[in-house]
Protein 1
Amino acid sequence: MDHPFYMRLALDAAWRFQLLTYPNPAVGAVVLDKHGALLAVSAHERAGGPHAEVRAVRDAYARLSGDESLNGCEEALRLHEALRQKAGRLFEGATIYVTLEPCAHTGRTPPCAGLIEALGFKRAVIGTRDPNPQAAGGIERLKAVGIEVIEGVEKEACERLLEPFVRWRAGRFVLFKLAQRLNGTVDGGTISSEASRRWVHRLRGVADRLVIGARTVRTDRPLLDCRLSGDRPPNVTILSRRRETVDRSIPLFFVPGREVEIADRLPEKGLILVEGGPALLKSLEETYDWLLLFIAPRLKEGLGYNGTQELIKLHQSALGEDITVWLKAKHG
Ligand code: AOF
Ligand code: ZN
């Protein structure tokens, strides 16, 4: 069995929900049957929802049994109970890959390690340990009942995936999001595909604050809501050194249920999403944690980002028509 290969499948699945799981970590899981055939690839999608392992086991169960009654179920407790009741010996000899140590605690959902144990998995391949002491302990628990545990597969990549979780637990994580075209231009209307914009709206829905520069507020007059995902609109911080220059007739001030503040610095706690252009990016080069670029397969004249910051690529994937690239400044 090519452990790194299957772990990378789990990693790719998890990255699609990176940050969307806030305040939980992004986690991916893969299930193979007793012959080593691939049954399911899945990820944790939102806090309060089923963990990655449980969603992967749900899909693997449907493949193995032909029973479709749990397909699409996102209720963690119901899944735990139903899988324990229905799976019988289907998972005997099976292998599960998880980017993060399966939890051993009852949080908003029951413990994943308990489910893996109850279903009779033969082997668990785990990327990295859970830095949350309340949830950790799954590795010991699995070993104690005789499940073969292989630890540290693609460890660095699994730790990288977990970095925002570690940072916001310690205080704050700042993501700067920028959309650009192939030739680097960032102005002149909509840039990224609908799938990318829907993803960003989901992120707005979970972030503690959406931060935007006073210049963008002035020129784009944006609404900054979550209309494509149906989530609650985020509270907004407008970065400005001169409070009085922000025009309060701009639509974003009138989105119901939202608070808007004008401040000269970033909020200090939680998950902070910054949406802005090249000027704001330049001014926050030393401050943000990660940069997420959406690159749309189009060309158009205009203003571009001319930064020369040294960046480390963390991950890339496709979203709709676009390419998304997660980057980190070298200073970070
Ligand atoms: C896993 N698999 O996919 C994730 C885990 O409140 P809960 O029940 O959702 O538990 C949240 C904690 O569980 C979170 O702080 C982290 O330590 C762990 N996340 N564990 O086995 C997963 N997302
Ligand atoms: Zn869990």
Protein 2
Amino acid sequence: MTPYPNLFRPLDLGHVTLPNRVLMGSMHTGLEETGDWARVAEFYAERARGGVALMVTGGMAPNREGGVFPGAAGLYSAEDIANHARVTGAVHEAGGRIAMQILHAGRYAYGPNCVAPSPIKSPISPFPPQELDEAGIEKQIADIATAATRAREAGYDGVEVMGSEGYFLNQFLVTHTNKRQDRWGGSYENRMRLPVEVVRRVREAVGADFIVIYRLSMIDLVPNGSTWEEVVTLARAVEAAGASILNTGIGWHEARIPTIATSVPRRAFAWVTRKLMGEVAIPIVTSNRINTPEVAEAVLVEGCADMVSMARPFLADPHFVAKAQRGAASRIAPCIACNQACLDHTFSGKLTSCLVNPRACHETELVLAPAKNPISLAVVGAGPAGLAAALTAAGRGHRVTLFEKAEQIGGQLNLARQIPGKEEFHGLVAWFEAELAASGIALRLGHDATVEDLEGFDRVILATGVTPRDPRIPGQDNAPYYTDILTGRVTAGDRVAVVGAGGIGFDVAEFLVEDASPTEDLPAWRAEWGVGDPERTRGGLAAEGPQPAAPAREVTLLQRKDGRPGRGLGKTTGWIHRATLAKKRVEMLGGVEYLRIDADGLHITRDGEPALIAADTVVLCAGQEPFRPLAAELEALGVTFDVIGGADVAAELDAKRAIDQGTRLAAKL
Ligand code: NAP
Ligand code: SF4
């Protein structure tokens, strides 16, 4: 008996029955653009083997003008169809089902030939779109229908028509982007004509026995977005036009409200999907920040949806569904919603992967085969790098002993999980604990390994982490480091200066200004960001705007570099951290020089002028240095060893690099 009876209830779609209620949502991985179709096929096949009922591919362009960027993958030629057939063949052989997403980017297409209902440039693209004429609109519809036909030819089980997130179809729906006065603009009936016609023509093209998902923007989170009445009207029209499933889209890409970042509460938008339940007869899928089987089951039990979409959780663990089904949820590698190796990569033109699972999208390259000659291995340090190395090595059959001087595993992850909005790190540490317990690794907690401990092992890996950098500011003797603040050894006063505005400086500032984490309190989070009810205000933007709670402290965040702090933060999440601190009235100063710390606070110069940052506490977050005290001794004894993680290179260290380096080293042992 599964602990998640609703999640594992089959779903009858008429011509086909899905074995469970889990959909893998569309993700742009960049794999198709590599041209390595064996790799694309393995990515999806591995997830099919993991038991997900239905997968949706990354968005495929229906034509050149609609591609998200120049050269974006699409089904244009017989060769494209043959390549995609390799993917669908591998998925079907693995017992899975897969639908192809058709994504027309409209004015979000990153190129000069982009098209839209009206020639209004998006705030997130430098390219003003060309306004389509009647023939141009017909071409877009025909191209989308053709893409669906080709998807069927390539063996897909269905298509998803991307109608949300502010892309082409969504751009027709709202007056924000559609200023037309012809039959494609003006009244809502006219504005929804294009999406509805697209679905009708797609259904006509593919026949009855083919899944057609429509991804519908249920809360636009932009000015002049759809009303709830319009959302319901569209849902019914799309159903009548032939859609078999409605999927949920939340927020346009240009919205200034986070929708999937780790600081967004789990299942933060399931209540929006729930409003649509009962309005149509076809199954409805909910989405966004659902990352455990418990949460997925809960949204089904509460009637928020018929099916649950998760995307990034399948990067973190392709076998999410199979593990949930056999009651091994604690063994599911959790997606912590950090975006660091997935969306941040996508938006930097890099292949997607996953911080937690470096094998994601590297399935054919990073292969963890059983070791030919098992060895005895000592790993020193149970932070992310050491944990990844130890678990990977043990999984391959090596005999591993893991030393950790603290009483708990996790290293810097234990600091990260103290930050409001980073609660997902608790789950990551818990997962590492579960993996360790099942691994056969000899874990020596509370043991500061010595050279004598390491003698006799075939191989040694040092993953001893980092130590805070000493910024050597005169008078800093009583100033706490971030480690003192985040472990609770020191409590900050009411006015705080934070020295250093890297990832940790930002984290510490957030820790200091929040009394309680809004991520743990959905109403508080919605108030903080101004998420209203689309039934009351267009697009679901709260009429009163964001209403952040008062800051717990007065904080100033400083760096020596010129410019506003926060430029080096994550590509897709940096703006959220900057906006969060701005809401809490944190002053962010660049181009400063630190003179001294005294009872009055932090003395600096800025633009050549001396200034005092009045503060009761000055927190030092000036970066980190590698910590590897055993290295010299081992070297002297002639013991060969590897150094990984922060102990290797501390600059720009994060858990992504640590886990990747640990895994890759252990893959070769
Ligand atoms: P960091 O990003 O390298 O930032 C160090 C900060 O200290 C910078 O603001 C730097 O700016 C300042 N600094 C460096 N040397 C200094 C000195 N001698 N005296 C005074 N200030 C000095 O390091 P971090 O904040 O410790 O973070 C470490 C890593 O953890 C990050 O690189 C990041 O990858 C990861 N992390 C990421 C996140 C995230 O949000 N994704 C969050 C936390 C941590 P100036 O030199 O201009 O003063
Ligand atoms: Fe999730 Fe982070 Fe992995 Fe992306 S990189 S899938 S957000 S854990």
Protein 3
Amino acid sequence: MSIRKLVILPDARLRQISAPIPGVDKDLRRFVDDMFETMYDAPGIGLAAIQVGEPKRLFTLDVSKRDDTREPMVVINPEITWKSDEMSVYEEGCLSIPEYYEEVERPAAIRLKYRDIDFNEREIEADGILATCIQHELDHLNGVLFIDYLSKLKRDRVIKKFAKAAKREDEA
Ligand code: NI
């Protein structure tokens, strides 16, 4: 297992649409192990494949927030089949936009169809932080970031800040 380098805003790869996964093989399992290691190391509660540069419809999650009772979840080819009318607001962050947090409103509950690590079809209902996290990660697969839900003013400000930081790093 190894920790992968995170793709950081404003890297254009974050705007890419990720491709469906045809099946699970040894290489994909190894890649998923790397994603978990990268996610726990960061630390984060969710990581989409594109955030380590792989445009695959896959993300890892663990909203347990505790080291002793980890609840790792692998989500492949996800599809939201139902969203509640009720909304909820959470302060969100993103490993690709480090140390930036803002409140985002999303449907409070969802139903999700996906494939697990054995490529078996699954369907779950989620609410609370899990519902928010799933929607945030699924957005990544479509090139959407949580800052897209903010006002244009706020979004432009954070993109500019990260663009400047990236330029400084290039010049260093
Ligand atoms: Ni994110």
